[in-house]
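Task: fold both queries, return C-alpha cells.
Query 1:
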Amino acid sequence: MNIIDQLEKLGLNGRQAKVYLALLQLGTGTAIDIAKATRFKHPTVYDVLDVLKERALVTETFEGGRKLFSAEDPNRLRLAEDERRRTLEGLLPDLQALYRGGSRRPRVRVYVGPEGMEAVDEELLAVKSGEYFYFGGVREMIQNSSEEHLSDYYRKRLERGIWSNAIRIRGEEDDLDYMQNGEQHLRRVRYLPKPILENSAGLYLYDDRVAVISALKENYAMIIESSELSLLVRTIWNCIWEIAEEPKSSHEHA
C-alpha cells in the first residue's frame, strides 16, 4: 500500500493527498508550483487547497504580492485523529442507546470457510458482558484450528478477563493444559449428561448474539444478532446447565 492509499484511510481523498504531499516536498510554493508538481489544473488546486486549509494542514501567506502555501507538520494528522476519537467516544453512548432502544430486525451474517471462526473469535474477545456461554467439544476446536491460534486466543482472553462458560461433551475432550476447567483459566465447565454420537455444530452465546460454527463438514459460521433469540437460547442453556454434570476430577477439561 502506497502513501496515497494510507492518507486516504486518514480521510484525505486522492487529490488532497497528492497536493499535501507536493507541498511537503516543496516546503512553500504557489498554486502554479503545486499545479506543476501534481499536474492538476489551477482551479482544482485552489479547490483542494481550500479544503486542506479548513483541515489545518495547509497555511496561506503573502510575500511580494504572491500568495504562498505551506504544508503544516504531519503531526496535525495525528492530532485530528485524536480529536475524532474523543468525539466518537463521547457520542457512542447516545448512539448505542438509540441502537438498543430502537425497533429493528435481527441481523444475520453467514460466513463460509475459516473466516467464520475468526469472526466469532474476534467478537468473543470484545464481549461487553465479560463472559460468554457455549455448547461444544474441544476436539472439534482443535481439528478446525491450530494449537498456535487456540493458545493465542486463550492468552488474549485471559488478558481481557473474559470468562468462558461451557457445556461440553465428555467424549470430545483433550489434554491441552490451557483448556482445563478452573478459575486460573477463567473457565467454568459442566458436561452433557448424555453423549452426542455424531459430530455437531458449536453454539456460542454472547451479548445479544447467537453464533453457530459447523466447520468439520459443512464449513460455515452464522452469527445472529437478536435479543429475543439470544434470551430464548440462553434460557435453554441455563436449563441444561442445571442438569449438566460437573467435572469428576482435574483431568477433565473445558
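Query 1 returned. Query 2:
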Amino acid sequence: MNTRRTKRPLLIGTGALAATAALVLGGAVAANAHVSIAEGPVEAGSYSILTFSVPHGCDGAATTEVAIQIPEGINAVTPTRNSLYTVEKVMEDLDTPITDSHGNEVTERVAQVVYTAATPLPDGQRDAFELSLQIPEDAADTALYFPTVQTCEQGETAWVQIPEEGQDGHDLDAPAPSVDVVAASDAGSHGHGDNTDATVDAHDEDSASAEAPADQTPLVVTSLAVGSIGLIVAVIALLRGRKKA
C-alpha cells in the first residue's frame, strides 16, 4: 500500500536530538537486544533483501508498530508481506525528479515503511521484517542507517541513534539499524567466476567425450572383424554337420 502522509518524525539530528532519541519511554533498553539488520556487508549498487529483527517489546510491553525510515539515495522499496501485520509505504516528493533505469521520470520516493500489528507482538517473542531495495551505487565504504521507531502498547523505543565520526556504535543505547556497504565486485555481483569455471569444466568433459570414439576406432574395427570370422566359421560347421546327417 502506498500512502502519502506527513512523515513521522524519527528524532534524528543534533546531539540534543540524539540524546532525546536514546530515551526509552517504556523503560530501560535491554542490553545487546537492539533492533538490527541481519545482512551485511552488501555491495554498492546491488539489489538486496534486508531483514530487520525486532527481538523484544518495550520494557515488557507488546509491540504494536514498527516504522522504518529509508535513507536518502534509496527511492524504491518492496516490503515482504507479513500475515500478522498491515504494511504501509509512506511517500515523499523528491526535491529534484530523476529518471530511472527504464527511462521513467520519478518524482517521489519511499520515505518510511510502517508495519502495524493485527495482534500485538508479545515481549517474549521476536519477529523479522524484510525490505527489498537497491543499495546506492555511491555508498561504497560507508554504513547505511535505517532509524526505526518501535511502538508498544505502553511506550515506545526510538532506535535512531547514529554514531558520530570516530564513535563506536556499540556504545550507543538505542542505535539505528545499519548495514555496511562495500565496493561492487564484478565477480561477486554477477558470479562470473563460478559460472566461467563451470563452463570450462563442462567444455572439457564434452571435448573428452567427443574425442573418445576416435581413439577407440581401431579396437572397434578389430572386434567387428573377429566377430565376423567367428560367425562364418560357425555357419560352415553347421552346413557340414547337416551333410553328414
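Both queries returned. Flag for query 2: Confidence is low (pLDDT under 50) at residues 11-31, 189-217.
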